Amino acid sequence: MNFKDIALMQAKIGATPDGFWGPKSIAACQAYLRGLMPKKNPWPKQDQASLTQFYGAAGDESKLVNLNVEGLGLKYDGKPVRTVRCHGKVADALKRVFAAIAAGPNKDVLGKYAGCFNNRPMRGGSLPSLHARGAAVDLDPDDNGNHIAWPTRATMPLEVMEAFAREGWLSAGAFWSRDGMHFQGTQ
After folding, report:
1. Is 56 helix (H, G, I), strand (E, B) or coil?
2. CA–CA dist 98, 74 (Å, integer)
3. CA distances from 163 to 26, 78, 160 (A)
4. 153 pLDDT higher than 90
5. Mean pLDDT score of the chain, rounded to an integer?
6. Which of 18, 35, 99, 160 gives 20 to 30 Å between its CA and that of 69?
7. How far apart are CA 69 and CA 39, in angstroms?
8. CA distance linking residue 163 with residue 174, whole number of Å
9. What is the pLDDT of residue 175?
10. Residues 60-100: pLDDT tens digits?
11. Selecting from 3.30.1380, 2.30.30, 3.40.1000, 2.60.40, what CATH number does the domain 37-184 have?
């Protein structure tokens, strides 16, 4: 995002609209997104015990469902996506998020879908990724990769993060200032 885009976003989230993204803007963005989340967040905390208690064991494919996403514009490598394999507990919320994004100005992000279930550890670690539970989604990785700072270099629109936040999901770009492609069903 450029200086002007960042200043507009800062004004929206209640930060000083100076175009410079720093600790105060990060805190304001996180508070803004948390303010959109359900008062009683339906998702577990991020520790492994809470994740296992809520979602079950990482890699347990018996917990997955095939979420029908036809007509919402999801594409993987340019090919239409008909179903997303996700955990049954996140399916309804994920469908609402995708529908909200599809109806908004940033629907092109859905054309850059990069996956949900993937039984693997977190990047650079040994603990299971939320993808291994089917409770995380990646969108537009080319512009929002793991080591690309959001929003100064990564381009994930705030409106996409808002759609996830309304369902209680965390957006990695806003909450870790990197990995702007990643969204997960945790508090």
Report:
1. coil
2. 8
3. 18, 23, 5
4. yes
5. 96
6. 35
7. 27
8. 13
9. 96
10. 999 999 999 999 999 999 999 999 999 999 999 999 999 99
11. 3.30.1380
Entry pTM: 0.96
User: CA-CA distance, 159 to 33, in Å (whole number)?
Assistant: 10
**Cis geometry, peptide bond prior to residue 151 (ω within 30 degrees of 0):** yes
Contacting residues for 100 by C-beta, under 8 A, at least 6 apart: 163, 166
Q: Three-state DSSP class for 93?
A: helix
User: Domain-by-domain residue ranges, the chain?
Assistant: 37-184
Given strand 182-184, what is the order of strands in its sheet? Answer: 136-138, 182-184, 170-171
Q: Look at residue 9 in the predicted model and tell me its pLDDT.
A: 97
> Could you tell me the end-to-end alpha-carbon distance of the chain, in angstroms, rounded to an integer?
27
For range 4-18, the mean pLDDT = 97
Tell me how far apart the alpha carbons of residues 156 and 47 are, in angstroms, rounded to a whole number: 26
Distinct helix (H) and strand (E) counts, the chain: 6, 7
Vertex 45 angle, CA 140 and 40, to 5°: 95
The two structure tokens encoding residue 138 = 């990646």
The b/e string for 77-93 (b: 16+ C-beta within 10 A; e otherwise) is: eeeebeebebbebbbeb
What sign has the CA pseudo-torsion 83, 99, 109, 16?
negative
